[in-house]
Amino acid sequence: MTQSAIPGQGTTRRAVVTAAGAAGLAATLAACGKDDDGGSGGGGADSAQDAGGAQPSQSASQSAEGGGQSGGGDGMELAKTSQIPEGGGMVFKDHKVVVTQPKAGDFKAFSSICTHQGCSVGDVSGGTINCPCHQSKFDITDGSVKGGPAQKPLPGAQIKVQGSSIWMA
Which of 17, 70, 88, 129 could form a disulfide with 51, with the two C-beta atoms 3.0–4.6 Å apart? Predict the structure, then answer.
């Protein structure tokens, strides 16, 4: 018995199984990549999102995408300190980092990759960094788990605050 489809004889079992597997893989990849298609309110191509889900000002967006100056530190300028809300934060998806300001002048940075299943966190609000995939929540002060299925805290990330700018270290 041949495994290829012969015109007029219908579809082979191998073709049906292959198509079903491909459809399942596509659905899985679409669900895992939800943060890239704007499903979390980020708008796909945009790299930063403030605490309320709105896009940051033009200068922060340019900085996050490589338009910032590189003279203030070892890395790239992410944002101005005034763009990170006190008690909140901003997600920089392109750099896989979230920057928070738990109290005035105290800036923290964490990986923006959720420790539950690797989704990108979506926003910072209510004192937590929030993952849209399974609703894990992390404390803006130390990255510890505050709720959801995640069991491990967000790892810290290195930033430098120099003057009114926040830089990748």
Answer: 88
- CA 87 and chain centroid, separation: 19
Q: What is the pTM of this model?
A: 0.60
Measured at the alpha carbon of residue 83, what is the angle toward residues 36 and 91, in degrees to the nearest 5? 25
CB atoms within 10 A of CB 8: 5
The pair of three-digit structure tokens given for residue 98, joined into one six-digit string: 């979230």
Total residue length of the chain:
169
Per-residue pLDDT reduced to its tens digit, 14-32? 655 555 555 554 444 444 4
**DSSP calls for the chain:** --SS--TTS---HHHHHHHHHHHHHHHHHHHHTGGGGTTTSS-TT--EE-TTS----HHHHHHHTT-S-STTSSS-EEEEGGGS-TTEEEEEGGGTEEEEEEETTEEEEEESB-TTT-PBP-EEETTEEE-TTT--EEETTT--EEESS--SPPPB--EEEETTEEEE-
pLDDT in tens, 60-102: 332 333 334 444 445 799 999 999 999 999 999 999 999 999 9
How far is it between the farthest Cα atoms of the chain?
Answer: 74
- Rounded CA-CA distance 153/128 in Å is 12
